[in-house]
Amino acid sequence: MHMQGTGQEDGKVEAAVEGHDLREGVGLSASQPVVYEGLTGCFTAACGAGDPRGMAVLFLSPWGLEELLTRKFYRYLAERFAANGIASLRFDFPGTANALDEPAGCGLASWRDAIESSADELRALCGVSRIVVLGQGLGAGLAYEFAAGSRDTAALALLAPVFKGRGYLRELKLWSKFVDDGLGLRPEDRDSEPGTIAGIGMPEKLASDLKGFNATERDFRPQIPVLLAPRPELEIDPAVTEKLKSSGCALQNAVYRDYNVLLTDASPPVLPVAFADALVEWLKSLPEWHTQAAKPSRAPDVVPLVCGSFRETPLRFGENNRLAGILCEPVDRFIGVTVVILSTSYDYQIGWGRMNVQLARRLAEAGVATLRFDSAGIGDSPPVPGRKAQVLYDDSQIEDAELAYEALKSLGLAEKVMVVGRCSGAYTAFQAALRGPHWKGCISINPYAFHWRFIGLPHPLKEYWTKFTEPGLVARIRDGRIDLKAAAVNILVRLIDRAAQYCGGIFPGLPKITRRNRKVHQAFRKLADMGTRLTIVYSEGDEAMDTFLINFGSNAEGLATFPNTRLHFIPNADHNLTPSPAREKLFGIVEEEALALAGTES
């Protein structure tokens, strides 16, 4: 069933924020990118009615898959805080997300230094002397540790905190196995290094440091308000609570509602809105809420981060600067080809397993520039008013891809541009390439379809039946959590497919009709006529190939009529290309296509 979401995310921010361009089709700006001390961050200035409050929030991220799944929620919180006059800064720890990887390996020492630098940067950017430190997971443990030795911390918010590293590594090992099982990875294709999860490798130095990490060992002297929000099924260690109480801290307990849902692959993601409400009310209860910020000592600054063969610059683009991305360029010779890397599902711009970051930096070594970015409503890019809550397989993502091209054009990097996407991004890449010959190449990785017959994301018929027979159906329809039109269309398509499957033995051409072969072949012909290089990549045996084989034959013989098209298979890979060897194979294919495009006529 096509679930529209609660609709609360967009509405609350829009209603609260003043001074932002909220015209139909525009929406909030993305947070201001900032570069400092070799770090990249997102600064969200205070807005709304009244003067900026005399406090600001420093976000400390969790590790690995939890960070990937929490990114959108952190952006949402920053917007909620800003709408209430509270500025904030989010940043990436060294060796994670969009941050640089340290040659010697990133450990806790570099993370602690990053927290200190980020706290100083936040104070300078918003004119406050005291900050609230908010951390989740491992970030919460580091927040506790930082506040214990800080005199300028106004308050502390600990979300699903991790205080002891050795136990956390054991938990990550179990979670990693659960993820790998779900992906169907063979034992020999799994990365069993400590701390590694979902293809995100933990630096060896960090894993080693975590074995001896205990955030609560040191004395906690500041007498500050502390919000404790453990995971729903857990309680905070009583020893931690007692230590905070004995130091004179004012403790407030909160229920981290929807935490477990946040860490699933729900599409669109379910944000803990009720918990966000509680956080805002807690911030308003702090003494600093009643004071005003001074004039900032400096404005956000963006300079390229240079490391070896590449330099990266965070940027915003599109109407009202609503889209956030990273431009990665070669330090040495640029060969004239730029690759646009699209979002996959609701994974933000770093990609599953940090794949997009690795690809961009490898391509820079070959002289190729890249732009990786978040489409609206994903990661660091705010949603656009009036758009569907479910943005996957929607034309809005194609429009965002076009805006990425226009941004490159304004930078003089659009002479030869390729568009690359995986899964839902593969569909968007293919559809974007059909928009015109300005896209010189397209790489579509594990696409489920080239012509989308559904509205939003379809579900199995059994799941539709379950949803429609659950209590509260009328309420879910009334508040927009169920799109009746989408459900009706998708159920009809599913029923037609089921009929075609059963009748295929009698009428062999029926499955081809239901999969719209003619429309697909017309699209492929259009790309061939425009001279667009088209590369299709599949993980061997991937379920996404089912429709492709119906479109082009069991041996892909139908591709022979499209000389501009190449087909590659990657062995021992899941749909997400989690194993490192599978990703390396993909990177080689993309690099080969980029180099080939560089040698062709414009």
UniProtKB/TrEMBL annotation:
Keywords attached to this entry: Hydrolase
Pfam short name (any one): Hydrolase_4
Coiled coil: none
GO molecular function annotation: carboxylic ester hydrolase activity
Residue ranges of domain Serine aminopeptidase S33 in the record: 358-468
Cytoplasm as UniProt keyword: no
Descriptive protein name: Alpha-beta hydrolase superfamily lysophospholipase
Source taxonomy: Bacteria, Pseudomonadati, Pseudomonadota, Alphaproteobacteria, Hyphomicrobiales
